[in-house]
UniProtKB/TrEMBL annotation:
The keyword Acetylation does not apply. PROSITE patterns: TPR, TPR_REGION. This is Putative TPR repeat-containing protein. Pfam families: TPR_16 (PF13432), TPR_19 (PF14559). Keywords: TPR repeat. It comes from Megalodesulfovibrio gigas (strain ATCC 19364 / DSM 1382 / NCIMB 9332 / VKM B-1759) (Desulfovibrio gigas). TPR repeats lie at residues 26-59, 94-127, 128-161. Gene3D superfamilies: Tetratricopeptide repeat domain. GO terms for molecular function: protein O-acetylglucosaminyltransferase activity. InterPro entries: OGT, TPR-like_helical_dom_sf, TPR_rpt. It comes from the Bacteria.
Length: 213
């Protein structure tokens, strides 16, 4: 067992000891859940997060974690509902709003996604993932101008955020700006972002056209 593994097991044991003395402490249940996630013990982690909100209903981070576990198992509705509970419990918390927007995008509902993502960005203007996803939602709504504006805002804040470059490339392709789209794709690749092979194939003809004779 590595030193990190030993430290993790020691931390888990410590949280369990604390719960033996005070089983009503929601924060300790939550901390245990996070540690169990790190160990890959998803079922026990889920149980710990459920115990956390049972004893501390305002600990909405546990709802967010439960949403993540639901998403991991392919339960989009479950993820959506948990994040809605988190948003209701703490309306000024940007993370669940961003997650709600992401799930709606996965469900093919860009208008609902955009409204949630707008709330997320209003609460946290530096929420880069929400900005990038919002740009994609605007594009799917057909509002290319707003999509480009939001994506450039994201890249102004974090120039190495690959998903924003990728989404901006999609917007520019919709406009027929192939050379600019290629540049964005190259920047996305340079960040280490895994651009979809289908997109790379789509732009390949334009790349050859851009080469000097």
């Amino acid at each position: 067992m590595t030193t990190d593994s030993k430290a993790l097991e020691g931390y888990i044991a410590e949280q369990k000891n604390r719960l033996s003395a005070n089983p009503q402490c929601g924060v300790t249940h939550y901390n245990l859940g996070v540690a169990l996630l790190s160990r890959g013990d998803f079922l026990e982690a889920e149980r710990a997060f459920r115990d956390a909100v049972t004893h501390s209903p305002t600990l909405v981070e546990a709802y967010v974690q439960l949403g993540g576990l639901a998403l991991q198992s392919g339960d989009l509705e479950g993820c959506l509902n948990y994040n809605k509970m988190a948003a209701e419990g703490r309306p000024m918390f940007a993370t669940p709003q961003g997650n709600i927007g992401f799930v709606y995008m996965q469900m093919g509902e860009p208008s609902k996604a955009a409204r949630a993502l707008e709330r997320a960005v209003k609460l946290d203007p530096n929420f880069i993932q929400a900005l990038a996803t919002l740009g994609n939602a605007y594009m799917m709504e057909g509002d290319l101008e707003r999509a480009e504006k939001v994506l450039r805002q994201a890249l102004d804040k974090e120039p190495m955020f690959g998903p924003a470059w990728n989404n901006l490339a999609l917007v520019l392709l919709e406009r027929g700006e192939h050379a600019n789209a290629l540049e964005c794709i190259d920047k996305a690749v340079a960040t280490g972002y895994d651009v979809r092979p289908e997109l790379l194939e789509e732009v390949a003809p334009y790349r050859s056209q851009a080469q000097p004779a």
